[in-house]
Amino acid sequence: MLSTLASHPCTNRPSLPFPLRLSPPPFVPLSRHRLPLHSCHASPSSLPNSSASLSLSQSNSKPHPPPSPPTTLKIAIIGFGNFGQFLAKYFSQQGHTILAHSRTDYSSIANSLDNTIFFKDPHDLCESHPDVVLLCTSILSAEKVLRSIPIQRLRRSTLFVDVLSVKEFPRSIFLERLPPDFDIICTHPMFGPESGKYGWNGLPFVYEKVRIGDSHERVSRCEAFLNIFKKEGCRMINMSCKEHDEIAAESQFLTHTVGRVLAEMRLKPNPDDSMGYDTLFQLIENTCSDSFELYYGLFMYNKNSTDLLDRIYAAYEEVKKDLRRMVQGILRRRLFGTTGVGELEDPAARCEAFLESFNKEMVDLDENATGVHFVALTIGMILAKLGLKPTSIATKGYETLLKLVEDISSESFDLYIALFMHIKNSNELLDQLDISLAKVRTELYGRLHDILRRQLFDQPGIISNGRTRM
Ligand code: NAP
User: Fold this and answer.
1) How far apart are CA 206 and CA 162, in angstroms?
2) Which residue among 210, 243, 365, 439 is the one 20 to 30 A from 456 at the CA level?
3) Is 470 a pocket residue for ligand 1 (Cβ < 6 Å)?
4) Ligand 1 within 6 A of 293 CB?
């Protein structure tokens, strides 16, 4: 197949017009197809004997309709890991041809998918002249991988797309590294193999058409690519990379941090969850099925991440302080009687009243369920202190966090105290949360330290433009 694709008579003509809509269906040897002459040598309008110009001369009154957009594309996926394979499944189901390449040999996985071929050598892949090159590698390796693609073997008008979870960074390396004739779209499908496993309907797809040539073919190719996501029902959001990063970088990093901290706590889901915390466990599943590399990328490429980690810590300390102050207030009331403040204004009195009714009603409550409830409320309290705001491009995970904050109503603190008093190991749960938060933070900073050390001492001088190269 490789040789038939590479031996296309057009392959050595870099200045050809974009021939996509005329290309054969996936994986049918080109030699068995009679390609229309203009697919290789000229645009339809420049061919006096082409069927296009004939139809024009036969009917001068009717303008020649623009060619319909291409229906199938030849898409190269560079970085065929978790997310690349997930996208490939959907692309191939829609009839597109996938040319995959990755650091690891994924030939057998490619063989199990329709219309998909794995290229160990990126030169062979580029010589197959994909219509679209989709960069799907980790954020940290993106620049190195982009530099390793032999772009001189591609068609001059190839469309480059990325799906990195941060956007200004790929936009800038594309503009810096790709020749001006290449088209560029920066995208972020805001879902993953877990959150999108039952389909993409209604899920946000953010994109910026960074540079699209104005010829009809280029515009059509861009639309054909975006149509893949439209057809699956994605909510298409045209947004600049800058705006994406301003809105999403923080919310994504926060969502992944909460998911990872909760995972560290090893909470057990309750089979008869009546409190609606199944979404919390989905959040853990969604974020932890993504690689640490991805989480680390969100940390590295969000300039507010270190500050955000500090704010999470500070918010947690404040929640604990509120909790201790309240417990002490209740105890003091018991020891010394009322403080003279009216019952309704005295939070300790209100909490104590709540606690009494709570204790009467909740004697049979499952210990694990109350533990999960208590942790969920603690996270909700922390997030409320951080001042979480809804965004137009929220992932499912971030929506779970917003829901937690929404659930924190004025009575929640009374319930929170009640749970704290009711659960025997609530102090241990708080300690566990402390340890988990510290562990995640240590992992992030440990990694940062490690990379910088390697760059400074193993390969001095490799840091350029302030970017970290992997
Ligand atoms: P990832 O850990 O971010 O990236 C894994 C991919 O990067 C694999 O293809 C891997 O190649 C490649 N890679 C990692 N280090 C490399 C290196 N040093 N040199 C060459 N290749 C390297 O996990 P992912 O979930 O597959 O994400 C891929 C991209 O999609 C990321 O940019 C991510 O931000 C974006 N994204 C992911 C999701 C999601 O939910 N997972 C959603 C939207 C966007 P090998 O497998 O061959 O080693």
Assistant:
1) 11
2) 439
3) yes
4) yes
Q: Select the more confidently predicted residue: 69 or 378.
A: 378
How large a percentage of the chain has pLDDT more than 90?
Answer: 55
Is 71 a residue whose pLDDT tops 50? yes
- Which residue's alpha carbon is at the smallest distance from atom 20 of ligand 1? 103
**Which percentage of the chain shows pLDDT scores above 70?**
77
Give, for ligand 1, the residue of 78, 82, 173, 298 to mutate: max count of ligand atoms closer than 8 Å to Cβ: 82
Q: Ligand 1 center to residue 78 CA distance, Å?
A: 10
Q: pTM for the complete prediction? A: 0.79
Residue 468, ligand 1, Cβ within 6 A? no
Ligand 1 contact via 196 beta carbon (within 6 Å): no
Q: Does the C-beta of 118 come closer than 6 Å to ligand 1?
A: no
Q: How far is the CA of 282 from the centre of ligand 1 (A)?
A: 21
Closest atom, ligand 1, to C-alpha of 470: 18
Is there an atom of ligand 1 within 6 Å of 103 CB? yes
pLDDT of the residue at 21: 33
Q: Calculate how far, in angstroms, residue 80's C-alpha sits from the geometric centre of ligand 1.
A: 8
- Confidence bin at 75 (pLDDT 50/70/90): very high
87 Cβ below 6 A of ligand 1:
no
Question: Ligand 1 in contact with 234 (CB < 6 A)?
Answer: no
The Å distance, Cα 81 to ligand 1 centre, comes to 6
Q: Report pLDDT for 82.
A: 96
Say yes or no: CB of residue 164 within 6 Å of ligand 1.
Answer: yes
- Cα angle 21-24-28, degrees, rounded to a multiple of 5: 160
